[in-house]
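Lecture 7 notes: from sequence to structure.

We start with a single chain of 261 residues. Read the sequence below before looking at the structure.
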Amino acid sequence: MLTGLGSAQEITVSPSNFHEDIVAGETIEKEVDVSWSGDAKTVVEMEAEYANENGTVTEGFYTDYSPQEFVLDSGETKTVDVSMETSTALVPDKYFISFKATTETELESETIRETNVIDHTEEIGEEYEEQLEELREELNETKKQLEESESDLEELRQIRDELESQGEDTEDITRTIQERQDRTNQLESDLQEKQNQFDELNSRMEEASERSDDLEAILFGTIAGLVLGAVLLLGYVGIGKYRDDEDFMSGMPGKWNQGQN
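Now the structure, written as tokens:
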């Protein structure tokens, strides 16, 4: 079992290694299952090491992972497709290949947190959009009712004017006009209130969108900084790699008796 920066109980890779005879120009396809049992999300990056009985091999293999870097939730397992192409200059031999999954634990407190905030902000934006659509429909309906009420009110006034010109009683129609006027006033008030709600919600959605853009910029900067730190760290670790090569090969039982396919 090979692990990354997390403990053996947190990140597992299966199969973790294999060995076989490999010739120049050959392409080898493998599927690797990566499981994470940590308490929170983590960013995982895949890598591989190559060796023969003479030691670690650093040239001749071109490895592609699909995907190479991904996020795992606690208890989640992801299958990674690995394609290894060999150089035409590779010396035919029996090679021992091991897969490793490293976890970017530093990102858990920064990148993952920022990603969660961005996701939450986007969810809020979607909720705002749904509420805006509902308010937009209510606004249109209220406007329609107001236009109908104003049209009815105008017709009632024309009828009252005709009745007055004919000397007839207009008390009933005047009462109806007043009721219609009250209804129109209420619709105008409702329309203004809904318009205010719409404008306020639209403003909040724009603010949420701006926050999401700002957080994405911060997240990009954080990742860039961590990548730079990782490069510097790998450069430092590389100083002692030749010592590790000897330990790596000495730990292999027999010449190639790994008991794996």
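Helices lie at 105-108, 111-165, 171-237, 241-250. Keep this in mind for problem set 3.
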